[in-house]
Amino acid sequence: MQDDTKAGRWKLRAFSLVAAFAMLVGALIGSTAQAAEPDFTAEAIASGLTADQAAELQKRVDDVLASIPGGTQVSPTEIAYDGLDVTVDPFASESDYSAAAISCPANYFCINSPTTNYRFYECKTWTLTNWIGTWPYNNNQTTGTVARAYASNGSTVVWSNTAKSSGNAYVTPWWYFRPC
Prior knowledge:
Elements (H helix, E strand, L loop, with lengths): L1 H34 L4 H7 L4 H17 L4 E2 L4 E4 L2 E5 L20 E4 L3 E5 L5 E6 L2 E6 L6 E5 L6 E6 L2 E6 L3 E5 L2
Antiparallel strand pairs: 1-2, 2-3, 3-5, 4-5, 4-7, 6-11, 7-10, 8-9, 8-11
Helix pairs in contact: 2-3
């Protein structure tokens, strides 16, 4: 009878260990499911883009994330930084690409590439990756605030602008930008 009691205890311990392991696996699977990133391509398709348009949009978002460190994609078209909001236009070829068309909130410096809208609002130096072209901008910061773009050495000013103003900026090349 003593052996039966020992065997019963052993079985109870084994069952408890198996149950605890199953609960742990369940918790890990549950936390993995909660931590999964949103499928922004599927969201873009659900919003009306074709699969090819959604893939191209995601490629452009990925390019922005690679070119300006520190951002987080928050929707199929939006990237959030600490001090910078970026919107990638899924229909860039259909957009009005002019300084007058830039909607820019008060205290922001806004600049548009042909496919992307950048809205800087934090006064710090941003690292860019060789911005090239002529882009419309709207410097809607406090009057007198000077925005500056820098060459690859980080100290040579290649463009500057005093708020409030708008126009076209020759961004060839910009490697760093300080909106204030």
